[in-house]
Write a structure and sequence with these properties.
Length: 340
């Protein structure tokens, strides 16, 4: 069952990405306004330290970016799953129990969101490594209050996002198992499975890329050591789950066809007539059968083509570019401010 926010987002006349882009300046503006009202901006100016050099300030901006991104990413995760399921149903051609609504079970999604909330204190402890800080009055500045408050919202959204990515991919993978035996000459019917995996993986990569802007800050090494493997696991599940059913169908189709070929090689004319190559070429000659057997063996067992594999590899480089880009931007700002 979809949430009220999800149904409202689907009824809006604009794409979810535009909502996220509109939310970014509002959230960052609210963050800066809070720091200005509390006098935190003035204190930084009095010390001569640029505000962007403060770890808490940069973290607050990154949290705002992620808080704007995750609801949008959830919307796209649902849309991608629904699109993939529609494409596969057209190939199945029979009623199926698999549906997008059944994939996003509300109690399980809420449990995942509750687990996401636990990420907030865990990340804070990994950064600070001193729980006594949270008992000090000076710790709770406007920047810190903003980070914790919006961070709790972010944790809830993160848990729901992870569940919806896995649930949507699982629904696609289950429906792929109901597909008729695929045509070994043309695996285009299985393309929605690969497309679902690539798109879902990209949504996860973008999240890591935004968070990577803070990886160079003090104390974030332990966060990176936890986040990167967890994100890699989620990306792996997002890519693997929707294609495992398709891979099983390809392997079953190959085994069945190879069995027919071997019977035909032993002189079974009936088996030769049942080969899928029938009508395209005469499969009764020994050389034709041997060539056809080599072709069937060479058919890839994963529904990914070369372009899909290349996109996955390029997507995995995005977080590295984000981290390097954040460092370069900081150095450029420092040079400009010194020059001014």
């Amino acid at each position: 069952m979809r949430s009220h926010a999800a149904r409202a987002m689907e009824r809006l006349p604009v794409a979810p990405a535009w909502l996220g882009l509109a939310a970014v300046p509002l959230l960052i503006g609210a963050f800066i306004a809070g720091a200005w009202l509390s006098g935190e901006l003035a204190s930084f100016r009095s010390t001569g330290v640029p505000w962007f050099r403060d770890r808490g300030a940069r973290l607050g901006v990154v949290i705002a970016l992620l808080a704007a991104y995750l609801p949008v990413a959830r919307g796209y995760a649902r849309a991608f799953a629904a699109e993939s399921l529609r494409a596969l149903r057209a190939e199945v051609g029979a009623p199926s129990k698999v549906s997008p609504a059944g994939s996003f079970d509300r109690p399980v999604r809420r449990a995942a969101s509750a687990c996401g909330l636990l990420c907030v204190p865990l990340v804070a402890l990994l950064i600070d490594r001193d729980p006594s800080l949270y008992l000090m009055r000076d710790y709770w500045s406007s920047t810190t209050v903003w980070t914790w408050s919006l961070g709790l919202f972010l944790g809830w959204q993160l848990g729901a996002f992870a569940w919806e990515v896995v649930a949507g991919s699982r629904a696609v993978g289950r429906l792929a198992e109901e597909l008729p035996p695929p045509d070994l000459f043309d695996l285009a019917a299985l393309a929605p499975c690969a497309r679902q995996g690539v798109r879902s993986g990209l949504l996860c990569v973008i999240f890591v890329s935004i968070f990577a802007l803070n990886f160079g800050d003090r104390g974030f090494l332990w966060v990176a050591a936890l986040l990167v493997p967890a994100a890699a696991l989620l990306i792996g599940l997002a890519v693997w789950i929707p294609v495992r059913g398709a891979r099983r169908r390809i392997r079953e189709s190959k085994r069945a066809e190879l069995a027919q070929i071997h019977r035909a090689l032993r002189g079974d004319a009936t088996a030769a007539g049942r080969l899928r190559v029938g009508g395209r070429a005469d499969p009764r000659g020994l050389q034709d059968l041997l060539a056809y057997r080599s072709f069937v063996i060479s058919v890839r067992e994963w529904p990914f083509d070369a372009s899909s594999a290349a996109r996955v590899a390029l997507y995995l480089l995005i977080p590295l570019g984000s981290w390097l880009g954040g460092a370069l931007i900081e150095q450029a700002l420092a040079v400009l401010l010194r020059g001014g």
